[in-house]
Amino acid sequence: MAAIFAFKCTCCGEIHEGSPSFAFRAPDQYTSLSDEQKSQMATLTEDFCTITHDEGTDRFIRAILEVPIHGAEEPFLWGVWVSLSEKSFTRYKETYHEPVVGEGYFGWVCNKISLYPYDQSRPSDVVVQPGRSRPKVVLHRGDPEDDPLVIDQVQGISVARAQELAERAQHAA
Ligand SMILES: [Zn+2]
């Protein structure tokens, strides 16, 4: 039977309960701006971000990247930002309060997850969810499939690996 994920942390000795969830507050492109640039070029809310350069505007939305944990009810969650085309971004905004299940968009994942180093940008499908749930990120499978994050999302991870990743993410500087 599936169980609630919980473990005694080897870093801090406390019990961490519930499947791990780590969220980025903004896309990396926003985080790397100076405060002045942020106020002049960018907008950021809980679910939307835009950055306007001389060459045009980049548009981002917040989404959820799930990694299943074998035997646990809830997956390991990474709250990541994904860049969308202008058309997709506009459609997502228009349907934000009444999402159309079955819709999805192509998007690039715009956060580097330090536990999953990868040199390239990760292409994905962003799949709209019913109600107030954030859209889900389904990573494209590489060829060859050499990205450990893709492999973990496709195959799922053991409770031991989930615990190790959670400890490292929780206590990362
Ligand atoms: Zn801990």
Number of strands: 10
* Residue windows where pLDDT falls under 50 for at least 5 positions: none
Associated small molecules: zinc ion
What is the helix content?
10-25%
Shape call:
globular
What does this structure look like?
- Strand 9 (122-127) and strand 10 (136-139) form a beta hairpin.
- The protein has helices at residues 28-31, 35-41, 86-94, 148-155, 159-170, and strands at 6-8, 15-17, 21-23, 42-44, 48-53, 56-67, 76-84, 104-109, 122-127, 136-139.
- By secondary structure, the chain is an alpha+beta fold.
- The relative contact order is 0.19.
- The chain is built from 5 helices and 10 strands, in the order βββααββββαβββαα.
- The strands form 2 sheets. Strands 3, 4, 5, 6, 7, 8, 9 and 10 form an 8-stranded mixed β-sheet that branches.
- The mean pLDDT is 93.
- It binds zinc ion.
- Zinc ion binds at residues 9, 11-12, 14, 16, 170-171.
What are the SSEs and their pairings?
Elements: E1 6-8, E2 15-17, E3 21-23, H1 28-31, H2 35-41, E4 42-44, E5 48-53, E6 56-67, E7 76-84, H3 86-94, E8 104-109, E9 122-127, E10 136-139, H4 148-155, H5 159-170
Parallel strand pairs: 3-7
Antiparallel strand pairs: 1-2, 4-5, 5-6, 6-7, 7-8, 8-9, 9-10
Provide keyphrases for this structure.
32% strand; two-stranded antiparallel ribbon; binds zinc ion; globular; alpha+beta; eight-stranded mixed beta sheet; 173 residues
Quick recap:
With 173 residues, the chain is an alpha+beta fold. It is built from five helices and ten strands, in the order βββααββββαβββαα.
